[in-house]
Amino acid sequence: MAGTLLQQTPPGGFIAGPTDDLIAAVRQVIGMRADWARTAELVADQLRAHLPGPDVLTPAQRRGQPDRPAGHVLHAEPDGTFSILGLVWRPGQTTRIHDHITWCVVGVLQGVEHEDLYDDQLNLTGTRENPVGEVSGFAPPGDIHRIRNTGARTAISLHIYGTDITRIGSSARRYYN
Q: The whole model's pTM is what?
């Protein structure tokens, strides 16, 4: 979520409805108290089973921001164990190379997200084109990456982080560029 504008939606509360089953499933997985890598795998399985469409965000939110990716908090678990964000990437928008403070799971709802993967020496180790429906999960260490919208259409993704992002402001641990 590096470089995103974070907004709680709607002010003072969170969207209910399309994510209710997903929230319950993530709670159940978190309750298993697995290590971070296994938790990311299990949450990814639940996101695949409960992946909403881009209409989980309002039409205004789906437009994004002109200067950087925009993040909209859809849920923050009261005990701080996870949060769910909708991220909107206009064409050409990118994050800086970064890693994370916790596990993360991402599902693409609209468009295509291009991901560059790096080792701890910042050598490019791979790239992925993540189309609609693609879900991936990862956990530190070994989670250094950059996300870009290289397409001509706005991309939207759902991110689930193993922390309350509203309390800490960003999922990024370090930026590398």
A: 0.85
